[in-house]
Structures are given as structure tokens and as C-alpha cells.
Backbone:
């Protein structure tokens, strides 16, 4: 029996995964969570064989969860399941010692193969993700942060300073709606959920 935790802040994703995995007698979902913080706390009471974890999560992202969980529970296996394929997040997941990385458009048979291989002590990366890792190894690349436009960098700078959309709009002579569009684009590019994560990310990675 292979036991799992599911972590994703979208209930439909958790429901869909549960429905797929419930068809396999050898797999049992112990619990599902909308936040990595809740899942990390639950590990002290009940440890699954594998955690299927999204990257973009509120409060604590999947990469930070993986680092903390692996540090405290070295035998725990983690497979990242993300809607993004950017090199930055793939390589950060590898650095965090994730045991696998799958895109959310993964086919059912590949998902099951990944779970079985990781449970047996191996690792699993879908073909396109593997190519990113191989290219990085060959070229000696370090994780590179997705590029922001000049205007997005200006908006980010003011967001970190704590300015509201209206205050930023006044400074840049654009509409509040345009500021909000830039903010949404920045969050999407960096795979973040909210301003709190955005400010923390910007400071940690010296973007401002």
C-alpha cells in the first residue's frame, strides 16, 4: 500500500486527483490539504509515503514545504505537481530535494508511474522537465528568475514599499486598473498567490 498526502489550494484539483487515485487499490490518500502549513503540521501525527504538492500555495509555497519536510522527515518522498514549467521552479524543486516533478497536464498512467517509481526509491521527472534539468546541468546554469518588464519592475518596487494601487497609479501616471493588471502579471510570472508572497519573494531574491 502506498499512502499519500495531497496539497493544493484548489479544491477541484484535490477532488480530481482523489477520484483518479481512488481507482487504484494499492494507493491510499490519507488526507488532503489546501495549505502547506497545515500539511506540515499534520506530518507530526501521520506520515504518508509520498506527498503530492503544488508549488504555488498561500502562506508557504511547495518548495519551502519540501525543504522543511525533508529536513524534519528525511525518508518522506515529495512529488511536485505544478501548472508551471519555468526553469526557475524546476531547479528550485530539485535543490529542495523533491523526488519528482510533474506538470498538471500529466496523463494518468504517467502519474501512477511516478508514484510507483518514487515509492520504490527512485525519482521521476516528465520528459520535458528532465530536459530542463539536463540542460541546466550541462550548461552549469543556476535557477534564473522569470524576466519582468521595466514597468512591472516599477510596480513591484512600489508594492514592496507598501503603496496602494491608486498611489502607484498616481506615481506612474497610469490607471489603477493598469496597475492591477501589472500586479496580476507579476504574480503569474513568479508563480505567487498574493502581495505578501510577492513582497517576501522580491526581498529574498533582491528584486528591489
Residues:
Amino acid at each position: 500500500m502506498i499512502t499519500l498526502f495531497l496539497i493544493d489550494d484548489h479544491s477541484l484539483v484535490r477532488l480530481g486527483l482523489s477520484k483518479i487515485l481512488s481507482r487504484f487499490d494499492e494507493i491510499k490518500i490519507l488526507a488532503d490539504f489546501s495549505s502547506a502549513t497545515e500539511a506540515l503540521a499534520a506530518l507530526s501525527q501521520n506520515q504518508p509515503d509520498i506527498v503530492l504538492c503544488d508549488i504555488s500555495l498561500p502562506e508557504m509555497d511547495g518548495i519551502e514545504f519540501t525543504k522543511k519536510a525533508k529536513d524534519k522527515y528525511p525518508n518522506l518522498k515529495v512529488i511536485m505537481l505544478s501548472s508551471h514549467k519555468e526553469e526557475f521552479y524546476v531547479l528550485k524543486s530539485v535543490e529542495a530535494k523533491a523526488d519528482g516533478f510533474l506538470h498538471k497536464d500529466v496523463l494518468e498512467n504517467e502519474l501512477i508511474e511516478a508514484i510507483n517509481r518514487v515509492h520504490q526509491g527512485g525519482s521521476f521527472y516528465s520528459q520535458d522537465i528532465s530536459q530542463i534539468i539536463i540542460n541546466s546541468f550541462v550548461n552549469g546554469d543556476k535557477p534564473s528568475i522569470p524576466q519582468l518588464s521595466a514597468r512591472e519592475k516599477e510596480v513591484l518596487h512600489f508594492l514592496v514599499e507598501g503603496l496602494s494601487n491608486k498611489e502607484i497609479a498616481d506615481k506612474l501616471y497610469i490607471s489603477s486598473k493598469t496597475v492591477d493588471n501589472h500586479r496580476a502579471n507579476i504574480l503569474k510570472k513568479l508563480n505567487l498567490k498574493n502581495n505578501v508572497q510577492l513582497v517576501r519573494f522580491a526581498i529574498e531574491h533582491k528584486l528591489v
